[in-house]
Write a structure and sequence with these properties.
- By secondary structure, the chain is mostly beta strands.
- The strands form six sheets. Strands 2-3-7-14-9-12-16 form a seven-stranded antiparallel sheet, with no helix packed on it.
- It starts with 8 loop residues before the first strand and ends with a strand.
Length: 321
């Protein structure tokens, strides 16, 4: 049995046509360019994060899985032949993202080895007037969507929703969606990098060419009757209390306001992921304590047991159900 402790990983930064420099506000090191995504905890061929604290420093999340998978990930979080089940990102949407939709696990057109992608967003910051695209308008079916794409008027089919910091959105696979300019977001999602682009504003990508669209796949995987997407304001929450803000077969995400010492515990069923959304404080466990601040993400092993949060901060807690 290894000494378990909360793991912090070196983020993998991704340049994106719609990215910016906003993730620097969290004290994160950004390479040059328009950085749209920080993969904070990832175990994927397109980005595997490495531990940067404690005895396991230098090991990738894939190494942790191979050496300590069941002990660290828990009975529900560990799959014999699967990767870590979730991917945790911070997103800087300095410009509009493409209109997109994600497949379910059952879609026959999935790239080999890939899963579907159900996700949730928690809005960390939003400029005045910021909005997102969230689902189809009432009554839009495949025929109507296909015609709108063909005729360059897909925006007419989509719902726009204004957003502000603290809003939470659940985006099951099949929901047409897009983040728009002026938001910084924490994203908790299935461990997948499969996105089908419906429309990309006819803009050139980082290489100067138009980015690929995936119209047929998009039409195939869209849930025209709705996939169960839901959104909520999350401000009705007391001190040292959890509020469930997204629930799916892949993750349960809760928001907590830490205002005093708060004793918590992991269970043998699942790891816990903590995303510090706001503020500063400390994370303590049997054997150590660590100062934590907004923008940091931690993987608490299922076998960790008791831990304590203290300070003045907003925390997102994710587990596998």
């Amino acid at each position: 049995m290894t000494q378990t402790y909360p793991l912090q990983f070196k983020p993998e930064m991704k340049e994106r046509i719609w990215g910016g420099r906003a993730l620097e506000q969290f004290g994160l090191e950004l390479p040059e360019g328009a950085i749209g995504e920080g993969w904070m905890i990832g175990d994927h061929p397109n980005g595997t994060t490495k531990v940067m604290n404690g005895a396991l420093a230098g090991l990738g999340l894939d190494d942790i899985r191979e050496k300590y998978g069941r002990e660290y990930f828990g009975t529900k979080g560990y799959a014999e032949n699967g990767r870590f089940p979730l991917l945790i990102k911070l997103l800087d949407c300095n410009d509009d993202l493409s209109i997109q939709v994600h497949p379910t696990d059952a879609y026959e057109g999935l790239p080999e080895g890939e899963l579907g992608k159900t996700e949730m967003w928690y809005i960390l910051a939003a400029e005045p007037g910021a909005k997102i695209i969230y689902g189809l308008k009432e009554g839009v079916d495949r025929t109507a969507l296909a015609a709108a794409i063909e005729e360059g008027r897909v925006m007419d089919c989509l719902q726009e929703v204004p957003v502000e910091a603290g809003d939470a959105f659940y985006i099951p696979a099949g929901t047409v969606h897009a983040l728009c300019a002026g938001v910084v977001v924490a994203e908790i999602q299935q461990n997948s990098d499969t996105t089908y682009r419906v429309f990309d504003y006819n803009r050139p990508g980082l290489d100067g060419k138009l980015r690929e669209l995936h119209v047929e796949d998009s039409l195939n995987v869209t849930a025209y009757e709705g996939a169960g997407a839901s959104r909520m304001k999350t401000d009705a929450i007391g001190d040292n209390e959890w509020l469930t803000i997204a629930e799916s077969p892949y993750f349960v995400v809760e928001k907590g306001l830490v205002r005093a010492p708060w004793k918590l515990t992991t269970t043998p069923e699942s790891f816990v992921i903590l995303v510090i959304a706001e503020g500063t404080g400390s994370l303590s466990w049997d054997g150590g304590t660590q100062a934590v601040k907004a923008g940091e993400c931690f993987l608490l092993p299922a076998s960790l047991g008791g831990y304590e949060l203290d300070g003045s901060m907003t925390v997102l807690r994710s587990v596998t159900p």
